[in-house]
Amino acid sequence: MTGYVMFRKDRLGRRGGGVILYIKESIQAYEIKLEKKAECEEAVWCNIVTGNSPLTVGLVYRIPNISIEENEKIHNDIKEVSKRDCIIMGDFNHHSGHLYRVPGERIKSFLI
Description:
Endonuclease/exonuclease/phosphatase domain-containing protein; Endo/exonu/phosph_ase_sf; Deoxyribonuclease I, Chain A
């Protein structure tokens, strides 16, 4: 898309899917990687350079029939980035009953 920088993370092992985040070219931003053991498969994270400290921006897709292990990875990612200034957005499939499963309760506590 003209005038924007693309940050993406494709879904692994199957066709289609993944997440993509566009940030206007005039905004200085760079992709960051979170702790490898915790990193969610369908999330992309970047830092936007601001005057004092970076602003972390994350885009997350949480599939409706998520496994407990993947749910835990999302929780760990959110926990890690929420220690700093951040904006987290995406499709968390809140309507899915799985959000209320443990450890989904912990994710819900970040979102509400």
